[in-house]
Amino acid sequence: MLIPLTRLYQDSRIAVIQRIDARPDLRRRLFDLGFVPGAAVTPLFHNRSLYACGIGGSVIALRHADAAQIQCSYPAPSEEEQL
Amino acid sequence: MNSSPDYRFALVGNPNVGKSTLFNALTRGAKKQHTGNWAGKTVSCAQGDVSFHGKRVLLADLPGTCSLHDRSPEEREAVEYLRQYPPDAVLCVADARALNRGIALCLQILERDNRAVLCINLMDEAKKRGIRIDAEKLSFLLGIPVVCTEARGKKGLSALISAAMQVSDTPPDSVLRPTYPKEIDAAVSALLPHIQNSRPRLTALTLLQESPDTLPAPVCDIVKKQLSHTPDLAARIEAVPMQTANRICAQTVARAPLPDKDRLLDRVFTGKLSGTLTMLFFLFVILWLTVSGANVVSDGLFALFAKFRIPVERFTALLPDWADSLLSDGVYTVLAWVVSVMLPPLMIFFPLFTFLEEFGYLPRLAYQLDPAFCKAGVCGKQALTVCMGFGCNAVGVTGCRIIDAGREQDIAMLTNSFTPCNGRIPLLMTLFTLFFCSKGGWLFGMGAALGLCVVLMFSLFMTFFSSWLLSKTLFRGENGSFTLELPSYRRPNAVKILTQSLFDKTLHVLARAVVSAVCAGVVLWLAASVSIGGMPLLHHITRVLNPVGRFFGLDGSILAAFLLGLPANEIVLPILLMIYTRGSTLLPEPAGLYSILAANGWTQVTAVCTMLFTLMH
């Protein structure tokens, strides 16, 4: 089941990015920042417009509309140990 | 020095990995690049010389890029530079704390040229955070030398240069290529025979990514057959460098969990209530320290200038009468004023501001202010350009490049003028202390700082409001996407703060102020001395401007001062006093300032109007 990044903040568990639905220019930028399929993402904190998450050792804040286009899933318990 | 260099190296890397610090350390400050703890500080190329074991190396510092697609202006500049002046070796600078991004960029560089060195910078920070990097294994996997550096501690610099010299003399023959999914690899192989240039693989990949439909028909069919089961081809190709980098990192980087201290600070700075409170607190403390500290220094400088006046007058007395009057009455008075009123606040304000910048607070401020900017229909990064505007509006406007081009950038540029820059802050400060806090003591400093806070909040509000207005009228559009990186906190280095803020910024600003002060002094002296119809020219000017000034709640003299002070706002107040005292020889003490202004009909209302005019013109 795919969960948008913005919905991960309810319980701040680490998730794995599966797909990015954004338009090409935004998608490329997200890739550059480390938001690629297969990468682990940690939801950290958010306010009314920005969602900050940990990705590959850095902390990046995204606008709600952009973060909603990053589709994640929770890893299976066996995978979780690797992350 | 004009002989051609033995080697040409280029520093390429993600934004905010310490390229500029590294550049400064390598060139030993031959040409200082400003550095700060947020992305996008370097906006154009800088070049510097390094001599190493008798060889001359020309080093170029390219703006930070995340990848080598040419999309943003910085990226285009970096790509363009690499294409036009291919360096003998590329030093790919990576942040040890976010190595995957550095490696992803490095992989893209390696697709163009084997002669590269991966430089893992900020090793000290990484060690502090419990990140261990197996550089040897990394070097083995990538096929190029990997050098760990600490640019701030100047460690690993000579190893870096010698590694770069080594790869440019003997290019590594096999370097790591990103591993593409099988079907894409097959499509690339099918394309290769049809491409005749020096980098067929790169060209093939770009073709597949951008325009697979424009391929010649027979090739197109093969490729299509190979890729028939691959939806969003471009997305899959683009993700590969980063995915490969993530895999490499998984093998070479051991990472401790994010430090609690950072998390705690973030919770304070970004909390709904605590974030707003800390923001106001920082603003207040900075202004308070500036106001109360500046007064002390300012008095001292005044005394110093008064003392020097006598020898200066003795010297100018040797010159013809007009020159004597010009130099001592015109130039010296304005100069003394500019230096002693404008220098102290800058001297205190800039280091404090640089401290916050180094600490990493500014991106949190941007985060905190983004909901408001979002409502106004613009980008939260505008908070950063507003902050830069405090330093200098010109810097603020050029800094708008960190915002993606388009309407949001235009708005940020236009509204930057609402931010009071360093020239206007001392002016606001002096007026405020004079008219609203006549009592002495520390309480008075508090009051003045509080008042200034209100003034600055008002200017911020005007920024929001005008941004909102612009985004609803002239620059209509959707809220664009934007990403904001929140770098981990750094302990600022006191020496660096002082040298950077005092010697670079303060002196730079002061030099500009002095130049314009001297010019204005000459103009003023002329206007006050040349008479037309029995009245000095200056009187004519102020009389003409008077009705306009009255309309704004000011008077003609104030308007004239603003007009003359247009090139540099810091000289407005000195000019104004010159006008009021009609170029008299006395050097007014700060205490005497109030009486002069009051004598010319100034009230608190005039002061408020002047302050507003300062903000808005």
Tags for this model:
heterodimer; A: 83 residues; alpha+beta; six-stranded antiparallel sheet; 3 helices; B: 617 residues; alpha/beta; six-stranded mixed sheet; two-stranded antiparallel ribbon
Outline:
The complex is a heterodimer of chains A (83) and B (617). Chain A is of the alpha+beta class and 83 residues long.
Greatest contact between two chains: A-B, 36 and 42 residues
Sheet/helix structural class of chain B: alpha/beta
Total number of β-strand segments of chain A?
6
Number of helices of chain B: 25
Query: H/E series of chain A, N to C?
Result: EEHEEEHEH
N-to-C CA distance of chain B: 46 Å
Largest sheet of chain B: 6 strands, mixed
Beta strands of chain B, count = 11
- Tell me the radius of gyration of chain A: 12 Å
Largest sheet of chain A: 6 strands, antiparallel
Identify the overall geometry of chain A. Answer: globular
Strand order of the largest sheet of chain A: 1-6-2-3-4-5
Roughly what is the average pLDDT of chain A, rounded to an integer? 84
Average predicted confidence as pLDDT of chain B:
75
Q: Alpha-carbon distance between the termini of chain A?
A: 19 Å
Q: Helical element count of chain A?
A: 3
Structure description:
The complex is a heterodimer of chains A (83) and B (617). Chain A is α+β, with helices and mostly antiparallel strands. Chain A contains 3 helices and 6 strands. The longest helix of chain A is centred in the middle third of the chain and has 10 residues, at 24-33. Chain A is globular and about 35 Å long. The mean pLDDT of chain A is 84. Chain B is 62% helix and 8% strand. Chain B has helices spanning 19-27, 73-84, 99-110, 123-128, 135-142, 157-169, 182-191, 200-210, 217-226, 233-252, 260-270, 272-316, 321-359, 361-375, 382-391, 393-399, 407-415, 424-436, 442-472, 494-529, 537-551, 556-564, 572-580, 590-599, 604-616; strands at residues 7-13, 46-52, 55-61, 89-95, 116-121, 132-133, 146-148, 253-254, 483-486, 531-532, 535-536. In chain B, α8 (200-210) crosses α10 (233-252), α12 (272-316) packs antiparallel against α13 and α18 crosses α19 (442-472). Mean pLDDT of chain B is 75; it is low at 583-588. Chain B has a 6-stranded mixed beta sheet, sandwiched between helices. In chain B, 47% of the residues are buried. Chains A and B meet through α1, β3, β4 and β5 of A and α3, α10, α11, α14 and β9 of B.
